[in-house]
Design goal:
Blueprint lengths: L1 H32 L1 H31 L3 H4 L2 E5 L5 H12 L4 E7 L1 H12 L2 H5 L9 E6 L3 H9 L4 E6 L1 H43 L1 H9 L4 H44 L11 H30 L5
Antiparallel strand pairs: 1-3, 1-4, 2-3
């Protein structure tokens, strides 16, 4: 008697586990049993899921292409031509001591001329110059507000011209924020569309098996027991759609990487198109599986509430 009582919970747990495994295997079998319908459903879902994910990946790459944040925030201070090298060095040390300055790089006129000779291919014209016309340059990296720092640097007696690119970076940041919000809106709308596609597919499967479901209800099967195979079916659809969406975006990445790297190289940039790391890919596929699970759960739950036998 005690042995039978002890094995009863284990048998119940084993039956619960076996039914989960059976539901998963049966769901995969149903998908493979109708390959064209499965391919159509998975294809529609994958395209809907790939659009917002691709937009998000494009925004991440655009932000990377814009350059390093600290480099983009640099303020260029061109000193007057009469400022000596010793004074330029001392001024750089004074600016490094300021609390609103993170770093200062001094470029001498000789360094500027050598860089111009290498980049522009104007070696012969530069060699013809008797004097170096370039001034000393200070590249100042601010800690926080570069606009306020640029105003303060413009007031220096040794400063001839101050350049900072806050305007275009603010506009770029605004476009990136808008693009991110657009990607979120598209993800919500197209995610809802994918959920409805799964729900409709599961609904058709439920209609095809309504007599079987009715028999199970008459035999006293719980809603969880009846719902479980359809939940796994929806999760399998979501999993397959997420994997296909990643495959499509990876193929697009491979197709665009080489020409984009060549284009960036023509501008002196070493930019390389970035894809998805394994953790991001795993999280996305898991999220699409959960989306399919939820879609199947909503449809199945609604059907079971409508067909639940009433007590007489």
């Amino acid at each position: 008697m005690n042995a039978a009582t002890a094995t009863r919970p284990q048998s119940r747990l084993g039956g619960w586990f076996d039914h989960h495994v059976y539901s998963l295997v049966a769901s995969v079998g149903r998908m493979l049993g109708k390959p064209w319908a499965t391919a159509l459903t998975v294809g529609v879902m994958s395209v809907a899921l790939a659009l917002p994910l691709g937009l998000w990946a494009a925004l991440v790459n655009v932000e990377s292409l814009a350059g390093q944040v600290q480099q983009a925030r640099q303020v260029s201070v061109f000193l007057k031509t009469g400022v000596s090298a010793e004074r330029a060095t001392a001024l750089a040390d004074e600016l490094r001591a300021r609390g609103d300055v993170a770093a200062v790089e001094l470029r001498t006129p000789e360094q500027g001329l050598a860089e111009l000779r290498e980049r522009a291919g104007l070696g012969e014209a530069i060699e013809a110059l008797e004097d170096n016309p370039l001034p000393s340059l200070l590249l100042v990296t601010p800690r926080q507000d570069e606009l306020r720092l640029a105003t303060a640097l413009q007031a220096l007696a040794e400063a001839d011209q101050v350049q900072h690119d806050a305007g275009w970076r603010e506009r770029l940041d605004g476009w990136l924020r808008f693009g991110l919000r657009l990607a979120m809106v598209l993800a919500a709308l197209l995610g809802l569309g994918a959920l409805l596609v799964v729900g409709n597919t599961v609904r058709l499967d439920i209609q095809a098996r309504r007599e079987e479901i009715g028999v199970l209800q008459l035999l006293g099967a719980t809603d969880g027991f009846i719902r479980r195979p359809f939940l796994y079916l929806g999760a399998c659809y979501g999993l397959a759609a997420g994997a296909l969406a990643l495959g499509l975006l990876s193929a697009a990445n491979l197709a665009l990487r080489a020409p984009l790297a060549e284009l960036a190289g023509s501008y002196g940039s070493h930019f390389v198109l970035q894809g998805f790391d394994p953790l991001q890919a795993l999280a996305f596929v898991f999220a699409t599986a959960v989306l399919g699970w939820l879609g199947a759960g909503l449809v199945t739950g609604h059907y079971l509430r409508q067909t639940r036998p009433t007590a007489t």
